[in-house]
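Thread: "does anyone have the structure for this chain?"

Original post by V.I.:
We have the sequence but no experimental structure in hand. Need at least a predicted one for the grant figures.
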Amino acid sequence: MESRPYDVLDSEEARVEAGDNEKSLYHIIKPEINFEPGTSEYDPRVYEEAARQFAKFQKNGWLVQDEKEQYYIYAQTSCLPANGNKEKTQYGIVVGAYSGDYQTGVIKKHELTRADKEEDRMKHVRVNDANIEPVFFAYPDDEVLLQLIDKYAKTTPEYDFVAPIDGFGHKLWVVSDDNDIKIITERFAQMSNLYIADGHHRSAAAALVGAEKAKQNPNHRGDEEYNYFMAVCFPASQLTILDYNRVIKDLNGLTPAEFVKALEKNFVVEKKGAAEYRAQELHEFSLYLEGEWYSLKAKPGTYDGE
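Reply from O.Q.:
Generated one for you, tokens below.
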């Protein structure tokens, strides 16, 4: 059932990656693949298909409800250029994040969200009555939690596999011990904030649907399942900030030299040569143009804040 997030690939890529695997989660998160090519992902039939597939997964026992409330520890092992192409493992705790904390800003975000994208995910949550994909949170390092994670990491995981799509390793441990559950709950309760690393639209959609359900429930208490959405929380020290790349198709009639000259209005431009150059500091970008790398440092006054 391994899959990439719904918003990092298009419909045809999902169709190819799912192949003939009926257990692929793409059948739920990218259900347009079950229709003829070219079907819009926003077609009303697509959302209905998501619900049908989710019900199918449960009926067939591919997704099973736990008998008790418990946490999970999830380890992801990658080998990325940002880590010098060295293998790195980060350990997260799978939790139910409180939607009210998103509304009040306890859960911090760093991106603005689009209403149309929010509505798309809200429809998906409504029709399934579930959050199918977790969001990615960061939390300040906590020594007690790190020690608890280390204890589990030394044991045999419930699941352990390498994804064929990208070669990432995945492990999952079930935290069913009541004392460990109590420790995790108490440690997170003491944190002033959590931070969204990825999944802003999924977080917004979950929180908005939760608020809808609360208004519709005359006996709302605040502890109902709709008040929570699935998140995997990683300690800040284990995270790697990856490149955020964009390709510009043309220079709008400018020559390469004229384009670089135009950039000098808002950036301090420095040519770095043919060797790959990565931005080194806040407000700096790297540019690759005609076989040359450049450093672009935003001039004060061209951005908000520090």
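V.I.: this helps a lot. The CA atoms of residues 277 and 303 lie 23 Å apart.
O.Q.: and Residues 200-216 form the longest helix (17 residues).
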